[in-house]
Amino acid sequence: MSDSQVRIAGGDTIRSLHADLPVNATFHIWLKATKPDVPGSLSFSNVRGKFGEVSVTNAEEYEFRIFHVFGGGSVELDYDTYQTSVSVAYWFALADVLETGITVLHTNPGNAPPNIPDSYHFRPPFGWMNDPNGFGRFGGRPHLFYQHYSHGLRWNTMHWGHAVSSDYLRWRHMPIFLFPSEDLTARPDKRGGAYSGSAVPLADGPGIRVFFTEQVQDRSPEQQIQLTATSSDLITAGNADVILPYRPLDEGLTTDFRDPYVFKGPDGRWKMLLGSQSDEGGVVLLYETHDHTAATGWTYIGKLLVEKHYRTTAIECPCLLPLDGPATDPATRWVLILGLMNSEDQSTRRKNLTMAIVGWFDGQTFAKEFEQELDFGTDNYAFQAFVDGDAIVGIGWLANWADTGPAIDFPTAMTLPRNIHLSAGELHTPPIGAAESLRSHILDRTRLAAGEQVSFINGAVEILFELERPGAHFRLKLQHPTVRLEVVVDDEGLAICHEDGGAAESPHYIAKGARPKRLRIFLDYGSIEVFADRGRWAGTKRISGFEPVQSARLIAETGAVLHATVWALKP
Ligand code: FRU
């Protein structure tokens, strides 16, 4: 039987997507040929008939095509699934996409987002996501870029996804921002892409300059080099230029050389941190430039820090921020935040921890005062922050590489955005104030405090309670269909007990010695975030799947709970 006969026997293989367009719409479409010898294509038509087509010959990986439709109106996109597979199709109008977002017309079962409309954590509109990138306020609005692969729920060739918000909580999805080279996108073979980085406002005029690592696995001698690109419309990035083609010489570094974080130093010059690895441990490298545009002139200053904590191998996604005063004041303390790749706290089995180190930064060196874990739950990785007016705002990847695997789909979210500040000599990371705007209505103010079971109407819930004295013991039992989940304070400290019945014993997510008085707990489909004493302790844990927590019961000695409130949240 010939192929065409199979096709007729199989019935209708044509798929149509419909769009009602404003004038000057842009389509982004990723398609591939289902067979190596037959091109794949997708056609555009309106009432007057077919007026355009995009096509590909690649049968290994989805290829990106842009198509502009100038006239507006009702448009059909047709393709034959016999010879064409479409991964993603969305459209937008460049003139107002910052206000309206993209309109996603098509995803497929392999890259579709979960259907959880009540969920209030940021997730990509399709595909895989890891680190936050380029987090900042540009043109008046918070922008979030992120590590992204569009065509599946597993890590692969890295692009930068993009979203815009006005409050850090409700995001509009933007077109994909950074694309790796065509050589890398030709095959889904995980050889690299546009890795993590940061963004700063353009020096002369509106727009941003982004910095990122280009990873090409089989490139020698440098797998990882640093690139920069600009965008004046905040939507499309121009061509990227190499700014650091080599690691610093004679520093004993491995090929790890990534995640440029650019910020203004105390001397007014642009500085760049990079994460690396050496025999001595994980390394933070410092560069600077005298170029006020940050485009050129990047020179190596030295190793800002060598970190051996928890036997870390490499540092990932370092960031450095002035904490308790202006960057230019030598008395100002700074906080250096680091992902400790491959670290393991042997006593709790927690992996890939994130440290926050407080000290002084004079533009060249960092003098440590004290350090703290950023998040005892460890599902707040690759945390990135910037100074927004008079507050630091940061966000992390609500996951941990230790739980991922090449063979499992692993949909993830970002953490709630958090502020960072010093209070009585300790670092606090509470959720941003606007998180209160998620509150919809009170579910309970009496029963939880009285030790009764409180049922939730959906999976978006905030629980607050205050203890009669710091460190009073309690056990908050959270009923979940597949995971044993509790928040506990006992003599050891504050812990999230999480057992998902997996083969390996779950790590012990604990802030040792914590004796909190006030608890604020956010539950969402697939996550729990615990903030104690206004962010003095923060614990974030991903929960596998999207089942909601169904109810809570608070077990404590009589009189130990002063009051408790349960809110239903609404995105
Ligand atoms: C951290 C990280 C970065 C790298 C990116 C790749 O999660 O490993 O170091 O740039 O992810 O996606």
Oligomer: single chain
Catalogue the unreliable spans: 1-9
- Number-wise, the strands total 42
Task: Name the overall outline.
Answer: globular
As a percent range, the share of strand residues is over 45%
Q: What's the overall average pLDDT, rounded? A: 96
Helix content: under 10%
Question: Cα distance, first to last residue?
Answer: 54 Å
CATH hierarchy, class of the largest domain: Mainly Beta
What small molecules accompany the polymer chains?
A: beta-D-fructofuranose
- Full CATH superfamily name of the largest domain: Glycosyl hydrolase domain, family 43
What structural class should be given to the helix and strand makeup? mainly beta
Largest sheet at a glance?
6 strands, antiparallel
How many alpha or pi helices?
A: 3
Strand order of the largest sheet: 31-42-33-38-39-40
